[in-house]
Amino acid sequence: MEEKARIPKKEEKTEQKKEDVKINKTRHRQNIYVKAIGMIKQVNTMLDTFEGIGLKMDFDDDKTPVGKVMNVMLQNPKDIACEALGVELREEKGYNVGINDDHLLPVTLEVYYPASGKVEFSITFESLWDLLDLAGQDAECAKNIWDCFVNEKEEAREMLKNKYNATGFGEVDEK
After folding, report:
1. Residue 95 forms beta bridges with which residues?
2. Please, are residues 36 and 76 in contact by the beta-carbon 8 Å criterion?
3. What pairing do the DSSP bridges indicate for beta strands 104-114 and 169-171?
4. C-alpha distances in angstroms, 123 versus 11, 158, 166, 169?
5. Band of the pLDDT at 148, cuts 50, 70, 90?
6. Which of 82, 68, 152 is nearest to 118 (CA)?
7. SS3 letters for the chain?
8. pTM of the model
């Protein structure tokens, strides 16, 4: 007795196509992320080389052509990596305890949140950018950043905190 081949239903084909599109988008984002990390590594190597020969690259100066170029070279790869990671930058206002416990000082922080909204944590702007600098030197760090934000793995976040001394993580409090 011959077995007939099962023809997939239209709904199954549609679901498979959706899954394939999702996988391809993730792979595309991952390729962009890897290239951005490579650019970060090259820029940091270039800065180290310039400092080694006594040139101080002043990237905070947006009035000079060199300062403008350095600003773009330092920011763009990190912005691209953050976009590939699917994080969203927001400003958070709050208060910090002053010298005495009875003084509260207003503060504004720039904080990245996973754009998916599924993960209940955040990381400060400075902390994520420091991690991206480390990722340019350490492929395992780059993988843990990807796993933390894209694959939403708790153990990757703990690895970033413990092994790479990442500070600036915060738990999302919906109060």
Report:
1. 106
2. no
3. unpaired
4. 40, 13, 9, 4
5. very high
6. 152
7. CCCCCCCCCHHHHHHHHHHHHHHHHHHHHHHHHHHHHHHHHHHHHHHHHHHHCCCCCCCCCCCCHHHHHHHHHHHHHHHHHHHHHCEEEEEEEEEEECCCCCCEEEEEEEEEEECCCCCCEEEEHHHHHHHHHHHHHCHHHHHHHHHHHCCCCHHHHHHHHHCCCCCCEEECCCC
8. 0.79
pLDDT per residue as tens digits for the range 3-20: 666 666 767 777 777 787
Residue found by looking up tokens 């990722």 in the block: 135
Question: For 23-75, how does the pLDDT look when each residue is reduced to its tens digit (9 = 90+)?
Answer: 888 899 999 999 999 999 998 898 888 888 887 766 666 777 877 887 888 88
φ/ψ bin of 121: left (φ > 0), alpha (ψ from -120 to 50), beta (otherwise): beta
**Distance from C-alpha of 139 to C-alpha of 142, rounded to nearest angstrom:** 5
Closest CA to 171 of 151, 150, 146, 154: 154
Residue bearing tokens 């773009």: 72
